[in-house]
Each structure stands twice: as C-alpha cells, then as structure tokens.
C-alpha cells in the first residue's frame, strides 16, 4: 500500500488530489487535518499534490485553489479583459469590450470616443465635434462658427458653417449664431418666449415653435440649436433629444452627449441624471468602493456592506451572501439539500426542512420561518448554452452560442438548448469538387460537384482543385 499525502504537505500553489472525504473511515490510509480529524483516501489508496491552474485568457480566478480542489474560472465582464488568466482589468480610456471573456479591449472607431475606464461601448462624438483617429479619449471641437450635421463625425471636413435663422443675416467673418441679426429687408423678426424658437421661411413668414420634447430654451431664441436637452437626455439630432441609455447619465442641461457611468457603477433605467454603485460595492462620497473580503452587498447604491456569517468569508466585491464560504480549517458545514439554517447555527439539528421541488424546479427564499417556493428552472433558448445548470437551490444561467469559438480550421455543431455542442474539423472538398460555402464558426464548409464549362477559342477549362470551381484560362 502506498502511503497517503497529508493536505498540509502540499506547498503553496498546490492542492490535494485523489482522496474522497465521503469514504468510510478505513484505517488503511488516512489524511489528517489534525490529531483527531481525518478522512480516508479513495479506492486507489493514494493521494498527490497537484499544481493549481491558471484560467484561460479572458477569464479570471473566481474560486481560489482549495485544500483538495483546483481553481474555478469565470469570464471577465463587459468593459474588462484578462491577458493573464488570473485577474480582470478595466478597459483603458479610448477602448471598450462589449462582450464577456475578452483577452484584450478594442479601440474606439473613428467618430467615437471613451473618456472612462471600463467602457462597454464607445460614445459618438456630439454635434460640433469629431474624432479622426482610432482610440480617442475625447473629440476635437470644430473651429468657431462651424458645426457638424450630426453625431459621430470622423473628420474636420465635416465641420461646416452654421446658417442664420430665416429672415436673419450676419456680417462676413461671423463666428457665432449670436452674430445673426434681423435682416432689415425682411419682415417678421419677432422674438419668442422661453422654450420656443423662431421657425419659418422667407415665403411663409416666421413664427414661434415649441422646442423639441425634453429640451428648453431661453426667451428670444433665434434657432432650434438654442433648445438645449434636459438632464438625462442627449442631442441625437437637430430636432430630437433622446434619453440616456442604461449605463449612461447626464447631470446637467445642454447638448452634450450622455457620459458612461464611472467604474463600478451603472444606471438600471434610461434617462438618468446619476449612476448607482453596483452590487458588491458601497457608496463613499463620489466613488464606489468594493466590499472588503468577508463582506457583501446585494443591492444597488448600498451605503454599507454586510458581514458574512461566523466562520465564513468571501472575496472582495461579493454581491451575494452565497459568496460567503466556510474558512479553511473552520467548523462550518453546509446543510443537506432542501434544508437551511440561520447565522450562528452550531449543529445539524439547526438545519430546518425546506420545501422539496421536482427535478425541473429550484428552491427560492427558504428560511427557518418559511419553507420557500419552487420555481421552474430556466430553459436555455435554441441559440444558448448553459453556463450553470439548474440545481435544487439555484436557477440555470444561459449564454449565447455566438460567444463560443473553435480553433482555426474547426466549426461548432450541436450548440443550443443548454448544450455547448462540440468543435469539429472543417470538411475538405475532394479534387472533383469545389467549396461552394466556406467553413465558419457555426457551420461546416459545403462542397459541390465540379462541372466543365465550354470556353472560347484559344482557352481551356482549368478544372476544380477542391476549393475553386475552375475558370477559362
């Protein structure tokens, strides 16, 4: 019999593999926690120390290497990346990551910018500004007296002179709409009340018109550009103010664009004037600080973090009490399935019975004073796979099949309805066939039979080569 390795024989960065803590208390081979507590080795009667792994690029270590378990990996969230497989970092200003599990952030394209770290998307340059290079952290302003026709301009050539309102004129070299004055050869240069502007034409005359929805203007405004968007709204065109999208905000009036929320915060609705700290963070003046290890916050815009139950801890920035796990060497044991206990419980008898659910349901809101509810497990859609299967105490989590990829020369088949499918090698057409459709991430190559075509005098048909269908040469 080979002697066992004790868990405390494994050096830092390694974990014990090959033992089964649920096996009978055999005296043949034991791995000791201390002088009186032990568990027997598995059937092989051997155990060994294994090196803790790193996650693949685009992922981070979400569960640390345990006494007898390897690390757990999770994909980096939107607005972040990982090139080392250990931790995620926020995308630098001027870049973004719109999907999960990115190993690098993409630069903002022409006509767009990102002035914050951790951007999930880039913002278009506002009217009157442009960005003529990739990776911009801000947009360049048009010269005085010039503007752009809309958002997202990518060149200084898009900056054109502003036009004075109908029945108004200006002197050569004017640089502002305020240089426009009433044309004495015309009539009807009347002023307008607040929240109105002068509209009309030379032939029909002018009149006061209401500013677009969600905008306002000072009295005596001469043109629609003087109608500025309200808080929580941005200028989407010369005649429209649109609500800031989720994840963005605008605190003051004006025609500037909405700003992305600062790091570790977001908005859960459109048209917001401020951002809320994410679960796992707490508000500290103007910043959102991560909950310290051993604490958690499950709601948005928390002012404080809750402590984990006794003898348990959690990673920093934890957003749920389920992130609290027993400390190594502690005495916390998980209650059996469909049983729950209160904080500070000290024995199995403190675990009270919860409602039992069928295999297609999971238990929600079980507590010592309430047996909980059974809720139907989520079913992944035809184009989704299961990130996490439904269990007795948690629902399934699904993600789009498009987020999966295969190696070069392979395609994925069978993904959907919860399954990840598998990667298969792309088919190669024979020399009597040609490739009528290329191999892609989600579909194999298609091969079609070759056909000889008649060529003109002095030319002949080259024939198929497994890729091309041939040509007259």
Automatic annotation (TrEMBL):
UniProt entry keywords in alphabetical sequence: Disulfide bond
SMART domains noted in UniProt: Ephrin_rec_like, TNFR
InterPro entries in UniProt: TNFR/NGFR_Cys_rich_reg, Tyr-kin_ephrin_A/B_rcpt-like
Domain of life: Eukaryota
Domain called TNFR-Cys: residue spans: 356-398, 405-447
TNFR-Cys repeats: 356-398, 405-447
Disulphide-bridged cysteine pairs: 377-390, 380-398, 426-439, 429-447
PANTHER family: INSULIN-LIKE GROWTH FACTOR BINDING PROTEIN,N-TERMINAL (PTHR46967), SUSHI, VON WILLEBRAND FACTOR TYPE A, EGF AND PENTRAXIN DOMAIN-CONTAINING PROTEIN 1-LIKE (PTHR46967:SF2)
Protein name: TNFR-Cys domain-containing protein
The organism of origin for this protein: Guillardia theta (strain CCMP2712)
Lineage start: Eukaryota, Cryptophyceae, Pyrenomonadales, Geminigeraceae, Guillardia
